[in-house]
Specification:
Blueprint: H1 21-32, E1 34-36, H2 63-73, E2 80-82, E3 109-113, H3 130-147, E4 154-156, H4 162-175, E5 180-187, E6 195-199, E7 202-206, E8 214-217, H5 224-240, E9 261-263, E10 268-270, H6 275-278, E11 284-291, H7 295-301, H8 304-322
Parallel strand pairs: 3-4, 3-5, 5-11, 8-10
Antiparallel strand pairs: 1-2, 6-7, 8-11, 9-10
Helix pairs in contact: 3-8, 5-8
């Protein structure tokens, strides 16, 4: 791509000195109040307390539960969990939420086709425009998500020149009130790294030096934590399919395209300047699905097998991002 750019059981709370009924009721109320879940998954905030009282019970201010309740209302749709007093003793089966925190039928994913027909992005080793690869893979991802029950998934096609089209796609995603934004691209290398070869009688360019996928997020996205969480899920699923990430972005030879590697296991990079990542109002990730300037990988990216593998990995990542997650206890 050319860049012009996260129970204690109530019955288990036992005080050695007999507490008054009022204090017991207040404690029970605090336990059952929901608290905000983090954007990147379940990261509970534990109310720490003791069943012992060194002296007379302190007066409870009415403002405290009101403040907690307000914080609960502002929580993002990833869900809530109960505050806990003491160690967790409930079995996993008892921790399933009463209702889903993410309904696939209404959860809206915008799958952005990188570049436009007028501004096609990189050119592959065999002279095929990146836009062609992007459109084909984005359509397949959209179809798989809809088949998996994400009926509100939208394929985003944009017209126009490179930079103006970036603001158009951001505005479209924001107007759609999307829950998740994924921009699909295919990779190349800086021009200085290209080599010449003849393909079907036409002078062409290639670089077999690098290959692999890469996933980008921006610290400037208003929901960076959730963006990073989704990126990690994509990287994990692609790795599970036996794919490797492109490591060239850590190397000085990349010049201005060198970027910090956030996770060396899954190939997550930060690219703070990308407009589609920092201007969208929802978690946003950009996926470079593979290198089309690498002659061997271009053929792989052109195959239905590789396209289905990547689309399936992305669809699985979306499902994992949507479902409730219990970081401390693991899945029920």
């Amino acid at each position: 791509m050319r860049r012009c750019e996260s129970d204690h059981l109530l019955g288990g709370i036992v005080a050695r000195s007999r507490p008054c009924r009022l204090i017991a009721i207040i404690i029970a109320a605090l336990v059952l109040l929901p608290i905000e879940a983090s954007d990147a998954g379940w990261r509970p905030k534990i109310f720490k307390g003791s069943s012992r009282h060194a002296g007379p019970p302190k007066r409870v201010k009415a403002a405290r539960p009101a403040k907690v309740a307000r914080r609960s209302v502002a929580a993002r749709p990833h869900g809530t969990r109960l505050a806990a007093l003491g160690p967790v003793v409930l079995p996993h089966s008892a921790l399933k939420p009463a209702s889903p925190t993410c309904n696939p039928a209404t959860f809206r994913v915008v799958v952005d086709v990188g570049h436009t027909a007028e501004s096609e992005g990189a050119i592959s080793a065999r002279n095929v425009a990146e836009y062609t690869f992007n459109l084909r893979l984005a359509k397949l991802i959209t179809e798989k998500l809809k088949d998996d029950g994400f009926a509100e998934t939208r394929l985003l096609l944009t017209e126009g020149k490179a930079r103006p089209s970036l603001f158009k796609r951001v505005a479209a995603a924001n107007d759609l009130s999307a829950d998740l934004f994924l921009s699909i691209h295919h990779d190349s290398v800086p021009n200085k790294m290209l080599e010449d070869w003849d393909f079907e009688g036409r002078k062409s360019h290639y670089s077999d030096r690098f290959s692999g996928y890469s996933v980008f997020v921006s610290h400037d996205n208003p929901d960076f934590a959730a963006s990073l969480a989704f990126a990690e899920l994509i990287g994990k699923e692609l790795k599970a399919q036996g794919l490797h990430y492109a490591d060239q972005y850590t190397q000085p030879i990349m010049g201005r395209y060198q970027h910090p590697l956030l996770n060396k296991e899954t190939g997550i990079y930060s690219y703070d300047e990308l407009i589609v990542l920092r201007k969208t109002r929802m978690p946003a990730v950009l996926l470079e699905a593979g290198s089309i300037i690498n002659r061997d990988e271009e053929l792989e990216m052109d195959s239905p097998e590789r396209q289905n593998m990547i689309a399936g990995a992305v669809a699985t990542a979306v499902k994992e991002f949507c479902e409730p997650r219990w970081d401390i206890l693991g899945p029920p």
